[in-house]
Design brief:
about 325 residues, about 70% helix, transport, MetI-like_sf
């Protein structure tokens, strides 16, 4: 039975359309998987060998550049001074001296300065996280009518060099306004915490993250009767764990390594952190004991990295927050 020319034309058109769609999907898949080196080139033995050598070289270079100084410091912390000076890269030629750690902890009073540093870092972390999240929430989620003006003012503070604010901040700490002429915040941890609280970079970073959160979730929570505080505590913060981890690391590391400001506002050695006391005792301390003190001082930053590395690598995890 013969078919009509119209039917044959339709069959040909559908066949060509199917072939075109198949080639298009294959080209899209190839484009999605395409890198600098294509799949066909990657199958060549010479290309595989070159890529393997490059990967090994980059890995070894990164390990040496990143972990090399930390591993050398850990090794030197339990190595006698003469061995460190004569054979700095030898692996304990005359044995391990564990006494360096106890001497640094007790004789230099690293325990006291270590505690002071933890207190300063914990306070700086709390105030920075509190101000960054609340300010970012107000500018991004609540969005008052004057939010663009506040956002511009916060952004403008980033263009002011920190050294310019050093003298005004110090005078404010010496004679805080509204507290009387006899009140001073010198040798008080508030003198370190309060200037660190209003960090414009953290505020803008958190605001930018809040801007990308799904508004449908906020509208659904408001429909269910959630107020601003409930929305912030129960909806926004649980969805913002990645950025909270990033701000936490930035805040703690910045407080841990800060030297100039704590030295100015904490002149009493009893309340000074490690970043201020270690340079002060360097000239009076043996090299091996001083390196042991430096190794102890790096414990918290390393612990922070190990604790929050998954937060940096993990996505926001909002794929299932909004369906449909």
């Amino acid at each position: 039975m013969s078919t009509s020319p119209l039917r044959e034309g339709m069959r040909g058109f559908l066949s060509r359309r199917d072939r075109f769609g198949r080639r298009k999907r294959e080209s899209i898949d190839d484009l999605a998987e395409r890198t600098i080196v294509s799949a066909s080139e990657r199958r060549r033995p010479g290309t595989r060998f070159g890529m393997s050598v490059t990967h090994v070289f980059l890995f070894v270079t990164l390990v040496i550049a990143g972990l090399g100084p930390i591993l050398w410091l850990a090794k030197s912390a339990v190595t006698p001074t003469q061995d460190t000076l004569q054979q700095p890269f030898a692996l304990w030629p005359n044995g391990i001296d564990w006494q360096n750690l106890s001497t640094a902890w007790n004789d230099i009073h690293i325990d006291q300065y270590f505690f002071n540093t933890i207190v300063i870092a914990a306070g700086a972390w709390f105030v920075q996280l509190f101000i960054a999240t609340t300010a970012g929430y107000a500018l991004s989620v609540l969005r008052p009518t004057y939010a663009p003006v506040l956002n511009a003012l916060v952004l403008a503070t980033l263009f002011i060099p920190g050294i310019v604010l050093l003298v005004p901040l110090y005078l404010t700490i010496v004679r805080p306004p509204f507290l009387g002429e006899d009140v001073s915040l010198l040798n008080n941890y508030l003198a370190v915490w309060l200037p660190m609280a209003a960090n414009a970079f953290n505020i803008l970073l958190v605001k930018r993250f809040f801007d990308n959160l799904p508004r449908e979730v906020f509208e659904a929570a408001k429909t269910d009767g959630a107020g601003p505080f409930r929305l912030f505590w129960s909806i926004v913060l649980p969805m913002s764990k990645p950025i909270l981890g990033v701000v936490s690391v930035f805040a703690i590391i910045a407080a841990w390594k800060d030297y100039l400001w704590p030295m100015l506002v904490l002149p009493d050695p009893a309340v000074q952190p490690l970043s201020v006391r270690l340079p002060a005792v360097q000239s009076q301390t043996e090299l091996d004991v001083f390196l042991a003190a430096l190794a102890i001082a790096t414990l918290i930053p390393i612990a922070m990295f190990l604790l929050f590395q998954s937060v940096f690598l993990r996505s926001a995890g909002l794929g299932g927050a909004v369906k449909g």
